[in-house]
Write a structure and sequence with these properties.
By secondary structure, the chain is mostly helical. The protein is built from five helices and three strands. The protein has a domain of 63 residues. It has a three-stranded antiparallel beta sheet with strand order 2-1-3, with no helix packed on it. The radius of gyration is 18 Å and the shape is globular.
């Protein structure tokens, strides 16, 4: 399976975080305490308004991966997003892959805790979320 994924490997864009400190807003690919995740996915399809398609190589690769992933979905049971995660992590050492899988389960719970808690517990929840996001970033999950 890994051999089949190698030709289509391309790095997915990193997660972008919106960090606010002392009233100043900054955007970064590294997490910060109290950060919110920003959707920075590029738009596609605007090239067709002229009647001609001028897709770049990255868009062609993305389209190829999507078609390839849809063809393999009955075998793998994974969506394009799930396959992108596998492509990104295939080069990581085994222990790092396991740590990434654990963080995949922890991050949604920590994000929910950071959103829903109040007062002093909120600061602790945001700190825990920051720690998990930082580890996720350092492992290159």
């Amino acid at each position: 399976m890994a051999c089949m994924l190698m030709p289509t490997m391309a790095s997915a864009g990193p997660t972008v975080y919106r960090c606010e400190t002392a009233g100043k807003v900054a955007y970064s690919d590294s997490p910060c305490i109290g950060a919110t995740v920003v959707d920075a996915a590029p738009t596609q399809g605007m090239d067709k308004m002229s009647g001609q398609s001028r897709e770049g190589k990255d868009v062609q690769q993305t389209e190829f991966k999507r078609v390839f992933d849809n063809a393999l979905k009955p075998l793998t049971g994974r969506s394009t997003e799930g396959m992108d995660v596998l492509r990104r992590r295939v080069k990581l050492p085994g222990p790092d892959q396991q740590a990434c899988a654990r963080l995949d389960g922890q991050l949604p719970r920590l994000e929910l805790d950071a959103r829903e808690t109040q007062g002093a517990a909120k600061a602790r929840a945001e700190f825990d979320l920051y720690g998990a996001r930082k580890r996720y970033f350092e492992l290159k999950c």
